[in-house]
Write a structure and sequence with these properties.
Two copies of one chain form a homodimer. Chain A has 199 residues and is mainly alpha-helical. Chain A has nine helices and no strands. Chain A binds a DNA duplex (30 and 30 nucleotides) through helix 3.
DNA sequence: GATCTACCTTACTCAGAGTAGGTTACTACC
DNA sequence: GGTAGTAACCTACTCTGAGTAAGGTAGATC
């Protein structure tokens, strides 16, 4: 019964627990409104412990963002492994993303909202997450597209990431839109273009 | 010489001045790191004056965001008035947007970054700006597209806004990309779709 | 059972948001 | 020109929450 009523926890376990609680509090209240005292209390530990492990409030936020990012990467990378065509790869990746944001709301909320701290590490961290996804897309696409204009390809990848991010936020307001439908909408514009729908 | 060395200013003028200074400070330091004391000092006035006029730090931020938004609206709406086709309207609107973010960096920075305060009025205010643009696009498009699936059309508009926002951020890192090129890249994906570039 | 160390606490400092209450310059009217 | 009224403004505070100093305690190891 090592786990029974034990108050003291090994460092790694305590850290995981702190990140878990912090993710919830940050996404519920927002970074600014969340207080370290509250997080500490919910964890069942005193405030200096949080500082011992994460150095600062922002450090704790960083840990949460990194955690979310690694999950997102895992999920989207896995999704595209068996794709045969560019269209298929794109569709699978999109679906994985839209499933992720539905199933891991808190995680997504952090990635979505906490870009406030311009010039601080946290903002860079969120940008890094987008870059991760952009690179993934660029890499995927480079295998399928004619590599002409390098800049243009990069722009296209950015474009896809931004579009999907916004569509994901839109999905939050529309519970009736399933990840499959969202994917379908995204594919529609991205793959076929608006021209195909013009009168 | 009413404007010469006058210390006291009429309310409206002082407010405009405060918003102007605040816009710079917020975009330079970020909302969290900006202090009301500093803004007050730069304006050449004491802190309670800021509170007299804007009630809170967030109120001041709100005023800045609203200011930026109204300029953005002005600019993009004007740009699309004479468009003959959907393609033309889209292109003109995009160009106006990309010119705006280049010429009014501080204003854009606010709209871009200050979405941190989830659940607070400022976040809503930034969302409202996106909605403004989304509505604009949706209205424009509805004139040109077959109105089939309502939800799909809404999703497409969200998509365009998100994509452009991200592309705009990408442009910040790429000074060599002119507003015209950005517009071209955007049109390429949006109008023709990725399929047209697949091997 | 002594000691060592990693986990944890109480009790502070300090910066910055927000406020209470008084002061001064401009205006309007006699 | 003088004086009453008010809009603009200030000094000097409170209070919340991030971050820290210094010390206490459980549990492993010998």
């Amino acid at each position: 019964m090592t786990t029974a009523k034990r108050k003291r926890m090994p460092r790694a376990e305590r850290m995981r627990q702190m990140v878990e609680v912090a993710e919830q509090v940050f996404s519920a209240r927002g970074y600014a409104a969340a207080s370290m005292d509250e997080i500490a209390e919910l964890v069942g530990v005193s405030k200096p412990m949080l500082y011992e492990y994460f150095n600062s409030k922002e450090g704790l936020l960083l840990a949460c963002i990194r955690e979310s990012r690694s999950v997102l990467r895992e999920v989207t990378e896995q999704a595209t492994v068996g794709a045969a065509t560019a269209e298929d790869a794109l569709r699978r990746g999109l679906l994985a993303f839209f499933v992720f944001i539905r199933e891991r709301r808190e995680a997504w909320s952090l990635l979505r909202h906490e870009m406030a701290l311009i010039g601080t590490p946290a903002a860079d961290e969120v940008e890094e997450t987008r870059r991760q996804q952009t690179d993934l897309i660029a890499a995927l696409m480079s295998g399928y597209f004619d590599s002409g204009d390098e800049l243009r390809a990069e722009a296209a990848a950015e474009f896809v990431v931004g579009a999907c991010e916004r569509l994901a936020i839109w999905c939050e307001r529309h519970d009736e839109v399933s990840p499959e439908m969202a994917t379908e909408y995204a594919m529609d514009v991205l793959w076929s273009g608006l021209r195909s729908r013009a009168r």
